[in-house]
Write a structure and sequence with these properties.
Length: 256
């Protein structure tokens, strides 16, 4: 007669399981936070609804066709930069990062969980905002190629903004990160070229806005949903920002 072996067998879970568990935890923490929900869903939805009826501000006969790609860009900014920076800064302040980094999860697993959580949140944003934009009358052009470029630009922008957010969270105090991340978000929303076309800004600052990741992202998405592909300059700007910001975050990020 065989006996059931009930002896202890301690050990870490498989790496994939640890990563998925951390991703699920990151998602729950974000969705439970009212400020994060405001940044990731409420503000983009309000801007989409208001902008779709603001032909004087946006210009053109169909403002929704201009506003919708910009709001998708804003969603990427809010999730990969502002939310990530604030959450990571307070985790660092309270010693969460230090403790998790010493567990079998490892620091690479912790960062991987954060990245996957950001990606899943962005997918949710794209579904909600895209469906709402279509309901408001958006008729995206560019065919399937435009949606492929959305993925490419979203990846580049997520790395660029995520690197900047982690650099800020890993070098500044939590309170300073909270204030600065929100300030940068507002400044880029109002004057960063992500929501409105660059030709709506004074010509003297148009080139400068193109060099910003927000301006390159917004203009690239608007071009993609009109012609099917963004300009080479916009893609190159985002790629450079992605490399530089990710490298800077890896070099100067402090875990405690």
């Amino acid at each position: 007669m065989s006996h059931l072996d009930l002896s202890p067998a301690p050990g870490a879970a498989a790496p994939a399981r640890r990563l998925l568990t951390q991703t699920a935890m990151e998602l729950r923490l974000t969705l439970r936070n009212g400020e994060q929900l405001l940044l990731t869903f409420v503000i983009p939805v309000l801007l989409l609804v208001a902008g779709s009826r603001s032909d004087r501000l946006v210009g053109g006969d169909r403002p929704i066709d201009t506003v919708a790609p910009g709001v998708l860009g804003l969603a990427i900014l809010s999730t990969s930069f502002t939310s990530l920076a604030i959450a990571t800064a307070f985790e660092r302040r309270y010693g969460v990062l230090k403790r998790l980094g010493a567990t079998p999860l490892s620091r690479s697993g912790l960062l991987g969980g954060k990245v996957l959580a950001v990606v899943l949140l962005q997918l949710g944003q794209f579904v909600v905002l895209g469906a709402l934009a279509v309901a408001l009358g958006w008729r995206p052009g560019g065919g399937a190629t435009a949606w492929l470029w959305l993925v490419v630009l979203a990846v580049l922008a997520t790395v660029a903004f995520g690197g900047l957010g982690l650099l800020m969270a890993g070098t500044l105090r939590a309170e300073a990160t909270l204030a600065l991340a929100n300030l940068v978000y507002v400044l880029l929303l109002v004057g960063g070229g992500v929501l409105l076309p660059l030709d709506r800004y004074p010509s003297a600052v148009e080139s400068a806005l193109t060099a910003l990741p927000s301006g390159a992202l917004g203009e690239g998405l608007r071009q993609a949903f009109v012609t099917g592909s963004p300009g080479t300059v916009e893609v190159a700007v985002l790629a450079v920002w992605a490399v530089v910001s990710a490298g800077a975050a890896g070099r100067w990020f402090r875990w405690e």
